[in-house]
Amino acid sequence: MKKRKRTITLLACAVILAIAGGFLLLNQGAPAADPADYKPAPVAPEAGKELRALPDAGSGGVPGMTLVAENEALALYYNEQTAEVAAKDRKSGEVWYSNPAGRNEDAIASPFEKEVMSSQFAVSFRDEIGTLETYWSYPWSVVNRNFTAESLENGLRVTYTLGDVSLGIDALPKRITKARLEEKVLSKLDETLAAYVEARYYPVKNGADLLERLDEQVKKPLVLKKMLAAFEEAGYTAEDLAADNEASGTAAGGGAQKPKFSVPLEYRLDGDALVVTVPLARVTESEKHRISSIDLLRFFGAAGTKDDGYMLVPDGSGALIRLNNGKIKEEQYVQRVYGDDPNDNSVSRGQVTRKAAMPVYGMKAGDTGWFAVIEEGDAIASVAADVSGKQNAYNYVFSRFSVRGEDELELYTGDQIQEIQLLSDELYRGNLTVRYRFLTGADASYSGMARMYREQLAKDGKLRPLEEGGNLPFYVDVLGSIDKQKSFLGIPYDAVVPMTSFAEAGNMAQALAEEGVANVRMRYLGWFGKGMHHRPPVKAQPDRGLGGSAGLKKLAAQLAEQGGALYPDVAFQYVYRDDGHFNPSADAARFVTREIAELHPYDRNLNRQDMYYGTYYLLSPAKLPYYVDKFADSYGKYGVSRLSLRDLGGVLSSDYRVQRVVFREEAKGIVTERLGVLREAFPDLMVSDANAYSWPYAKHVIDVPVASSRFSLTDEEVPFYQMVIHGYLDYAGAVLNLADEQNLRKQLLKSVEYGTAPHFLWSAEPTPTLKFTRFDGMFSVESEAWRDEAVKFYREASEVLGPLRSRPILEHVRHAAGVVEVKYEGGASILINYTDRPVTVNGMTVEAQDFTAGGDEG
Asked: What percent of the chain lies above the pLDDT cut of 90?
């Protein structure tokens, strides 16, 4: 009996320990990656050498500057007085300046604005109470000669010290003994000046031989100037000051309280490119002042009022801002690269925009131009641009880097709300690098810039050409299960409602095949984990209500047999429901305010987050490796070699957890590493809303931007995104049946212009089933209602785009309002006429709202 009791007791203890261990593991959350593993590898800075001018026989020179580096393509010049640089194209003779050459003659610019135009960068920072200030490099460093220059291999480094480096009154000892004052100062001055200095120091009570500075007198400007000159004349040194302060127990002066920053800026020639870097690992800041952002080369290659051309910005598919467009009352263009950070903690949102998915920008002026790619720090960068006629007479486009997280904390005091600006403690310490390349003649256009970017990505192995042949894909998203609130005996509960079973999806595919639609690429949404807003993706088990694992495998086999493919969809970064595999306290990201990143969908009417539409959490990027690996292990058992990624290639977030800060740049490293792991396991990846860093891992990208945000400052949208990837990736825009533009003819013309394949979202259940759910924005998804129109759309698009699927786009030309020509490698071209009447271009007539293929290979 005793033995039995002992056994029961041991079993009970084991159960209790197991439960306690489970709770402990749950509270610790999933294992986290170490952000340090994704920080740039520390590299010893290149040792600089004494700056020496090179002989300038072959480059032709730049007035007022000396040659400091050159190669076969470019020559780099430097002005020792202003710290500005210039890159000269040795073939064309064109010179590109870091600062406008004619800025001092600018009739619009104020004296302050001329100082801004003379600066190579700006540092924005906050003090202890959150006050924002900006220091420009010219007035805060160059004017005071607080900069040094040294030679690098193929380049130049300029190190700036920004701020008031003078100690002011604190250059004089606060307290000093009579003997020291006599020895170090008075004995070395004439009698009159010595008496003047001595009168400004007064004996300290009970201080024996100790004197104290009379600040009320000394701080007066004229007195201070005379006292500083006297101590300097006497040869009183910084070492003397430090010794006297230490002896009297006086803290170092108030100079340490002033904003002061040291920023190195490096220029290097690399082939036909000028590469500009700010190595943040070597940036220093004063103790009580934190850098929030850095504007880099704001006026590089700026265009004047007489120049004709445009600036390229990465808004959506791409947008142009015409030089001198006269929009002087419109706001400056500013857009964050790779979209907003979901961890920005914004309760309300402004204009709903297309994101900037590429880290690029450029300028065309006359028959010359330049193109910039942000190579390092792109995930914390924004692109900004403005036109002439506002503060100055120049058009300019540049990059801005947010080197700290920033947020607003609301404090409630009685009936008042006080807002405090917060910055994260940690400063991002990687490099900020922008590569500038130059264009001339016919290449100086957005088409030339797209070609330049595409060729560079292909050279780096980040884009791979598509194989010749093959049909144009037909992309169809199938809505599997959704969650919908129901009630039982008046008690609400969340039910899982099947919208399309695997068998019904098979019927859709069969119907398309019978209509001759080839290459169906089916993305299946909501197939596991209780629907679209599925559980944390640690276990990939197909929902039984849809047909289970057997139904999934059968559907995949059917599509493969018909020449298509199945892409089950998964979301990693937004967590909508928990089944014990997610702990918000441990696994969710944190705002700068240290709160858990708990979010709500935006109300479309008010543009504010609304709890009515539910709650979800933002997963910490440090937890991504765990969830991705767990999902891959589980999903791999079904033998489906393809996968759709809903958010992994298009969402980039930070995490400001105090013990484990993950900047967006480090998050990009985590994401791309996991994309590589998934591509290794599932070679055919479909990526939704793909940012440029995800292109190397995808075979299909969907929901690509086919428009810009149409900001007031921009003038024209162009298919720059498509011009870069066409012939290298199969792609489609957003689903056509939910587009704002419901005229399918106009959508077809846009698809032909942008080279996009058809993309639809369908369900077997009727659309009204989605009423009063979080998916009621899917207002028209019933497959039967759309199939005939979709088939017709595909046939027309496939006829012209199918043969061109693997060819890069060489040029996009706007002949007149509403008339566009797209030229492909090999000589083929397509003319698109958006107008309501026939047009003739180069001998080819195109009917109203129609298109025609031509060129050497029509």
From this structure: 76
Instruction: Report residue 756 as tokens.
Output: 């996009």
Which amino acid, one-letter code, is at 451?
R
Q: Are 727 and 806 in contact (CB under 8 A)?
A: yes
Give the distance from CA 528 to its chain's centroid: 32
Task: For the domain covering 67-162+262-457, report its CATH number.
Answer: 2.70.98
For residue 26, name the pLDDT band (cuts at 50, 70, 90).
very low
User: Bigger pLDDT: 771 or 807?
Assistant: 807
Q: How many residues does the chain have?
A: 858
| CA gap 301, 312 in Å, rounded | 13
- As a whole number, mean pLDDT of residues 89-112 equals 95
Which residue, 291, 309, 426, 431, is CA-closest to 362? 309
At residue 21, the pLDDT reads 47
Helices 744-754, 783-801: inter-axial angle, 10-degree rounding = 40
Residue 816 has pLDDT above 90, yes or no: no
Mean pLDDT over 293-304 rounds to 98
**At 550, which helix (H) or strand (E)?**
helix 548-561
C-alpha Rg value of the chain to the nearest Å: 32
Q: Report the relative pairing of strands 210-213 and 201-203 from DSSP bridges.
A: antiparallel
Q: Reading across the β-sheet that carries 616-618, which strands appear in turn?
A: 574-575, 616-618, 598-599
Angstrom distance (rounded) from CA 580 to CA 573: 17
Residues facing residue 835 across a β-bridge: none
Mind giving me the DSSP string for 740-755? S---HHHHHHHHHHHT
Token pair in block for residue 743: 């005229």
Every domain of the chain and the residues it spans = 67-162+262-457, 168-257, 808-858
Q: Could you tell me what percentage of the chain is helix, strand and coil, using 3-state DSSP and rounding each to the nearest 5?
A: 30, 30, 40
Of 212, 218, 208, 206, residue with least CA distance to 181: 212
Q: Which tokens sit at 514?
A: 């019978």
The residues, ordered by sequence, that sit 6+ positions from 785 with a Cβ below 8 Å of its Cβ are none
CA dihedral 269, 272, 276, 282 (to 10 degrees): -40
The answer to whether 173 and 186 are in contact (CB under 8 A) is no
Calculate mean pLDDT across residues 231-253. Answer: 85
Which tens digit of pLDDT belongs to each residue from 330-365? Answer: 999 999 999 999 998 777 676 778 999 999 999 999
pLDDT at residue 23, as a whole number: 43
Identity at 269, one-letter amino acid code: L
Enter the DSSP assignment of 718: -
Tokens coding 809: 């786009």
pLDDT in tens, 645-675: 999 999 999 999 988 999 999 999 999 999 9
| CA–CA dist 706, 731 (Å, integer) | 11
Yes or no: say if 682 and 566 are a contact pair by the CB < 8 Å rule. no
| Class in CATH terms, 808-858 | mainly beta
**The pLDDT of residue 11:** 64
Structure-block tokens of residue 176: 């000093």
Judged against a pLDDT cut of 80, whether residue 613 lies above it is answered with: no
- CA angle (113 as vertex; 111, 119 as ends), nearest 5: 110
Give one DSSP letter per residue of 219-270, joined into a string: TSHHHHHHHHHHHHHTT--HHHHHHHHHHHTPPP-GGGGS-EEEEEEEEEEE
pLDDT in tens, 121-152: 999 999 888 889 999 999 999 999 999 999 99
- Nearest Cα to 777, choosing from 746, 735, 732? 735
Q: What are phi and psi of 349, to 5 degrees?
A: -130, 155
Distance CA 320, CA 449 (A): 12
Q: Enter the DSSP assignment of 140.
A: I
CB 319 within 8 A of CB 718: yes
